[in-house]
């Protein structure tokens, strides 16, 4: 595996996994007051576009990382919309 690919994999893993504590806390407490709705709407749309980009360029790392990230971001966004 080449260095740029390894760096991409590590970056994808870290940025994707960074959402897990927020998902866990939001599911556990149902408290989303500290989460910005505007930021998560923009973030979720941006991640969806990254996913489409990954599909268009046939890049498995970009596609998988952003697919998982989109799933996690969508959970947070849905909880924010539900619990305010």
Summarize the structure.
This protein has a single domain, classed as Monooxygenase (Up-down Bundle).
Number of domains: 1
Distance between the termini: 44 Å
Number of helices: 4
Q: Report the portion of residues in β strands.
A: under 5%
Which runs of at least 5 residues are low in confidence (pLDDT < 50)?
none
Major beta sheet summary: none
| CATH topology term | Monooxygenase
Oligomer classification? single chain
Mean pLDDT metric: 95
CATH architecture: Up-down Bundle
Radius of gyration: 14 Å
The run of helices and strands is: HHHH
- Secondary-structure content class: mainly alpha
* Shape descriptor: elongated
- The CATH class label is Mainly Alpha
Percentage of helical residues?
A: over 70%
Total beta strands: 0
Q: What can you tell me about this protein's structure?
A:
The termini are far apart. The protein has a single domain, classed as Monooxygenase, CATH 1.20.1280.290. Helix content is 82%, strand content 0%. The model has no long low-confidence stretch (mean pLDDT 95). It is mainly alpha-helical and 84 residues long. The protein is built from 4 helices and no strands.
């Amino acid at each position: 595996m080449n260095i740029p690919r390894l760096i991409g994999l590590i970056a994808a893993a870290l940025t994707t996994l960074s959402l897990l504590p927020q998902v866990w806390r939001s599911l556990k407490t149902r408290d989303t007051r500290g989460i910005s709705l505007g930021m998560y709407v923009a973030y979720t749309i941006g991640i969806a576009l990254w996913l489409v980009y990954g599909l268009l360029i046939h890049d498995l790392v970009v596609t998988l990382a952003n697919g998982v990230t989109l799933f996690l971001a969508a959970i947070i966004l849905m909880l924010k919309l539900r619990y305010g």
